[in-house]
Design goal:
Elements: H1 3-23, H2 27-45, H3 48-58, H4 62-70, H5 80-94, H6 99-112, H7 117-133, H8 137-150, H9 157-169
Length: about 170
């Protein structure tokens, strides 16, 4: 519940230990303790459970990713970008089974603010796929044009072409 505050207090305690070690002449130990403090500060900005869920998604293990994300009880207490990625990852996990919930989560992730244009493009591509499955052709075409604008490295070209072919069939 107070995870971020505990990490800040811990990093301040580690900083004071490092200063003490530098004053005592233990330069090597002081540097090691500073590196440990850097890891604690990094964990403030990068939630370890979200990183673990990304790992499980890369391994294509949706169940483990869902379990890892379900351990985060209060996503609104995360940093904004972490909160957006929490909703994004949950949307990816639920897109296989619960389309209505996945659509809400993708929209919430986009409204909170994903950092990467590629992630925004993937979220909008999934929303376009959901709109296509519900026969909302206009919404799907606008989302697909936004995906083409956001996809600067042309990684999603095949999926966009496939969806446009499906749009022609409707």
């Amino acid at each position: 519940m107070y995870n971020k505050e505990i990490k800040i207090i811990l990093s301040l305690a580690i900083l004071s230990a490092s200063v003490y070690l530098f004053n005592e002449g233990e330069i090597g130990y002081g540097i090691v303790v500073l590196l440990i403090m850097g890891l604690v500060i990094l964990s403030i900005f990068k939630n370890e459970r979200i990183l673990k869920a990304f790992y499980h998604l890369r391994k294509n293990d949706m169940q483990k990713a869902g379990k890892t994300l379900s351990k985060i009880k209060h996503p609104e207490k995360l940093i904004k970008s972490q909160e957006a990625y929490f909703y994004y990852l949950n949307g990816l996990v639920l897109s296989q089974t619960q389309m209505n919930q996945a659509e809400k989560l993708f929209k919430k992730a986009l409204s909170v603010g994903l950092r990467s244009d590629t992630d925004k493009a993937v979220a909008k591509l999934n929303l376009a796929g959901l709109a296509l499955s519900r026969r909302r052709k206009r919404e799907a075409t606008t989302l697909l044009t936004e995906v083409k604008k956001l996809d600067k490295h042309n990684m999603l070209d095949d999926q966009v072409k496939m969806m446009k072919q499906q749009l022609k069939r409707i």
